[in-house]
Amino acid sequence: MKPILIIAAVPQEMALLEHALTNTVRQTATTFEYAEGTIGTLPVTLCAGGAGKVNAAAATATLIERSRPRLVINTGCAGAYPGSGLSVGSLAVASNEILGDEGVQTTDGWKDLRFMGLPSLVQGKRAYHNEIPLSKHAAEKAMQLADYYGVFLMRGRFVTVSTCSGTRQRGEALARHFNAIAESMEGAAVAQVCLRAGVDCLEIRGISNLVLDRDMSAWDIPRAAEAAQRFVLKYLEDLDRPELSAFVPVTPEM
């Protein structure tokens, strides 16, 4: 059976998942440390690849090549944009990821990769610029699972940035420009590598903070990381017992 690959940025976002892993074997590939084992009967690979798009893309590509997973789950924390309806401790699932920094700053303001004529990925006749789709099927399964358990889970567009938004003004500008609900530093990189490799990608994040004028005393990273991991464990449990699935199967993507 092909494994589930779970990618996060830092060990804190992986601790509960590692605790649930059995038959654990720890390995290293291209300097990325990862753990292989099982959760229930599912083969699972876990990797905290480091913060930022470069680390996320490199770790994801390395482990896709090594383990040939059937699904990649990107998890961890995110900041929620004001007005999104999300609060600290909430859960969010990405419908699409946006490369929020890639582009050019002009006298008329910031312009994206489409303006520059530089797609970030070309597959056949399809060119992707700043917006990267994730698996609709996997996200819909997550939404249905959340509904079954009475867990609040919001689905929407995420923005991936190299420079985090440390002011309310910047957060509001990104939310408005991209019609997005949250931001992180890795999501679009993981999603793009998965799209290139033809592997489904699901992104589940816990909200650690609102994107306001930066005040880390109002953040709760442990709560956000725990919420995301507990939901991922529920998702894996459901995958492990398809005959007892908590939700009605959805129609696969065309």
Describe the structure.
- By secondary structure, the chain is an alpha/beta fold.
- The chain has one domain: Nucleoside phosphorylase domain (Rossmann fold, 3-Layer(aba) Sandwich).
- It is 32% helix and 34% strand.
- It contains 7 helices and 14 strands.
- It has helices at 15-20, 53-67, 113-116, 136-149, 168-178, 187-197, 221-240, and strands at residues 4-8, 22-29, 32-39, 42-48, 71-80, 91-99, 103-106, 109-112, 121-123, 126-128, 131-133, 153-160, 182-184, 200-210.
- The strands form 3 sheets. Strands 5-13-12-6-14 form a 5-stranded mixed beta barrel, surrounded by 4 helices.
- Strand 7 (103-106) and strand 8 (109-112) form a beta hairpin.
- It starts with a strand and ends in a 14-residue tail after the last helix.
Principal-axis shape: globular
Helix content: 25-40%
How are strands sequenced across the largest beta sheet?
5-13-12-6-14
**Roughly how many Å is the radius of gyration?**
18 Å
**Strand-pairing-aware structural class:** alpha/beta
